[in-house]
Write a structure and sequence with these properties.
The chain has 10 helices and 10 strands. It is of the alpha/beta class. Strand 4 and strand 5 form a beta hairpin. Helix 5 crosses helix 8. The mean pLDDT is 91.
């Protein structure tokens, strides 16, 4: 009988050593991530790879490809197309009619992971005849997830789940109209992939790079400490045009944030806000 691996434990001081190493070697600043959550994910990776602290530091510094793998594993990449269908219904019914008034739309899917949210937005825009004057920026800290997002290829098992989400929104088209099946996978149609630019952006350290009418960053802030949440929300505020919309995850809100006074609540339960000043 195979012996079970002993769980790996590191101290918060040792975690700080890893964060310091990442900042100084690769300019990846994870200092604002919630420490308990980050510690659990680092310990999990060390357990999978049977590493101690010295092994981990050595791999980050010297093993080709390990740094990208490390960032991929410790950042949260749970996503799916049309997750929370009621949210997309509200976008369709309340937000998009307002966005119809803009001649050009710039949309930011922040913390986009493997791209499902950005493609969901592009499909929804297409359904409302807005895609031809829209451009979507999908950003994430992990280069590996960005590479996956650019391909727009997802397993048929995932497509089945995404179809169920899509059908709950109540749109006129079939989800299969928006992708091409290829054996055990599917590729999102070219018209959507051409309207999304995926690139690296670190919410911890990078700055405003455009002005947007809609920013979606759902279920990312929950992994940040309070100070980093404040800084990121300030970044979103500065990145939004006046009367632009900010969409957060169901476990996130602006209510406890000082920036709250600059926004109007569009939907309290779905955490959709509009910048009013």
């Amino acid at each position: 009988m195979a012996k079970l691996k002993e769980p790996v434990h590191i101290t918060f001081e040792e975690l700080d050593e890893i964060v310091y190493l990442l900042k100084n070697v690769a300019d990846y600043d994870l200092s604002g991530y919630a420490k308990s959550s980050l510690k659990r994910r680092v310990q999990r990776l060390m357990g999978i790879e049977s590493m101690d602290l010295v092994d981990l530091k050595n791999a980050i510094l010297n093993v080709e490809g390990f740094f990208g793998y490390f960032i991929q594993e410790i950042t949260v990449n749970v996503t799916e197309m049309f997750r929370d269908p009621f949210f997309y219904q509200e976008l369709n019914n309340v937000v998009f009619p307002y966005l119809q008034t803009y001649p050009q739309l710039r949309i930011w899917s922040a913390g986009c992971a493997t791209g499902e949210e950005a493609y969901s937005l592009s499909i929804l825009l297409h359904e409302e005849d807005l895609l031809n004057r829209s451009f979507i920026y999908g950003t994430d800290i992990s280069q590996q997830t960005i590479n996956t997002a650019k391909k727009g290829v997802y397993t048929m098992e995932k497509i089945k789940s995404y179809t169920e989400n899509y059908n709950r929104i109540g749109l006129n088209s079939k989800f299969s109209d928006h992708y091409t099946a290829m054996y055990d996978a599917a590729i999102i149609n070219n018209e959507y992939r051409n309207r999304v630019l995926f690139s690296n952006h670190n919410l911890v350290s990078d700055n405003v790079f455009n002005e947007f009418q809609l920013i979606c960053c759902r279920n990312v802030l929950i992994y940040f400490d309070k100070e980093l949440q404040r800084r990121v929300l300030k970044l979103f505020y500065e990145s939004l045009s006046l009367f632009g919309f900010l969409c957060l995850g169901t476990k996130e809100s602006l209510y406890q944030q000082e920036i709250n006074a600059n926004f109007k609540v569009i939907n309290k339960s779905l955490n959709i806000y509009q910048k009013i000043k």
